[in-house]
Design a protein that fits this description.
66% helix, 2% strand, 2 strands
């Protein structure tokens, strides 16, 4: 059995390492993380448009008092979340260009220009039969165009990298200023990247946005399904039990979660049914409370432990777990490679995911549609991301389930450590903190730190 676990660990570590070395996935992840502050700003202004007031009378009073200001708040919402595809295209191209060692600024600008050049169809405003103004359809610049923006960014950077490395660029004397040299060096790659996409869409009539929307729809459908949700939860828990950060595997979910969240925000603002059940906020506030494995429930048990070692970990790890940082508990208890705590670490988030999926599927609770700072305690995040007081009841239910599931296993582990402490000092069974690779023993995780483009993390 030990040999099988070691083989599985090596396989997971190798898969994570390969994924972690993928410049495409890393660039998409970094680009998506870079635009999340704009989503937070959009969420803030959405709260000004429709604050989560409990009573209907309060909502009506607020709407009447702020009637002149609400349309102005919407402007900022549209300028952030409503144009997220443009910003993501720039940041992803910038990140990939840095990894390919070509001009990142030129890559980002080329990506945005190519995206705007192929947004279709173009719509004109006619007055007396004459075109007076041309407008780009903003629906394609928002969540609907996110996947198109990602593919366009990856394409133009690869064109730029291919041409620069073969020196297929405009050559200037070395005496010219560096800024001029760099701008002319990116001229031909930008021309080829933009014109080829333009010809595909406007010359051949290929509806790029519609095709990509159709191709991305199954990804979001799987992400909203119970099997898809459980797959994400199981992958996260199993990988973490081997001390491997789940971001190495789940990085591919970041653009999908961002698209799902921004679509929910757009639908909520328009007064339409919120389409997606499980953006990232679904997991953070209703499944991974306190961190992967629903660690907040474990943290509460540690406060009541009889073992000196576990009580010491509780003093260090309880407060961080309240704010969704569970690394002290993961590596201090340890949960990593701990056969006793492995069962609730896997089963608790699975049960929480099932109850949350059922609550949102049957519209018992408003679906998450706002991006809330990950460092907030779970009740604030659950209420803020949904604007629904019933979310607190769902959170309490899931926490209670996780607390009960952890109880017998924590007691068993506590008794084992108490017995060891009675016979002499020894470390808790499991993977000792000293044997944790430096790449995994980090103090913070990207699952709970979406505003930083760090290369380490959990989600």
């Amino acid at each position: 059995m030990r040999g099988f676990l070691e083989t599985l660990k090596r396989g997971l570590a190798a898969a994570g390492e390969r994924t972690g070395r993928s410049e495409t996935l890393l660039s998409v992840r970094d680009g998506v993380v870079a635009v999340l502050p704009l989503v937070l700003i959009g969420s803030f202004f959405y709260l000004l448009v429709e604050p989560p007031l409990v009573r209907v009378a309060w909502q009506k009073a607020y709407a009447a008092a702020m009637a002149d200001w609400i349309p102005r708040f919407v402007v900022v919402f549209k300028a952030t979340t409503g144009m997220i595809a443009i910003y993501a295209g720039f940041s992803i191209a910038h990140a990939l260009a840095r990894r390919r060692e070509v001009d990142p600024l030129a890559a980002g600008l080329t990506s945005v220009t190519a995206f705007l050049a192929v947004v279709a169809p173009l719509k004109a405003t006619f007055v007396d039969g004459q075109p007076k103004a041309w407008a780009l359809p903003l629906e394609n610049a928002g969540p609907a165009g996110l996947f198109a923006a990602i593919l366009i960014a990856l394409y133009v950077v690869r064109v730029q990298s291919y041409m620069v490395r073969r020196n297929w660029v405009v050559r200037l004397p070395p005496s010219v200023p560096e800024a001029v040299f760099r701008s002319f060096q990116s001229l031909l790659p930008a021309l080829i990247g933009i014109s080829s996409l333009w010809f595909l869409v406007h010359g051949l009539g290929f509806d790029l946005f519609r095709v990509i929307a159709l191709l991305s729809r199954p990804l979001q459908a799987v992400g909203n399904s119970l099997p898809g949700i459980l797959a994400v939860v199981l992958v996260d828990s199993v990988i973490w039990l081997f001390g491997i950060h789940a971001i190495t595997i789940l990085a591919v979910m970041k653009p999908i979660w961002l698209a799902m969240l921004t679509q929910n925000m757009e639908a909520a603002l328009a007064g339409q049914a919120i389409p997606n059940l499980a953006p990232r906020e679904f997991y953070i506030w209703f499944v991974w409370m306190g961190g992967s494995g629903t660690s907040l429930a474990l943290a509460f048990h540690l406060l009541r432990a009889r073992s000196v070692a576990l009580r010491g970990i509780a003093k260090i790890g309880f407060m961080p777990a309240l704010f969704n940082i569970n690394d002290p508990i993961m590596f201090g208890v340890p949960v990593v490679m701990n056969p006793i705590l492995a069962v609730p670490f896997v089963v608790a988030p699975v049960c929480c995911a099932i109850t949350a999926w059922a609550a949102f599927s049957f519209d018992l609770v408003t679906r998450p549609h706002l991006d809330i700072l990950w460092t907030l305690p779970a009740p604030i995040g659950a209420f803020g991301s949904t604007g629904d007081p019933r979310a607190l009841a769902l959170l309490a239910l899931n926490f209670g389930i996780a607390f009960l599931l952890y109880a017998p296993f924590v007691r068993a582990y506590d008794r084992k450590l108490v017995a060891q402490e009675a016979t002499g000092p020894s470390a808790p069974t499991g993977l000792a903190p000293a044997s944790i690779p430096a790449t995994t023993a980090t103090a913070t995780t990207e699952q709970h730190k979406p505003l930083l483009a760090a290369s380490v993390g959990r989600k």
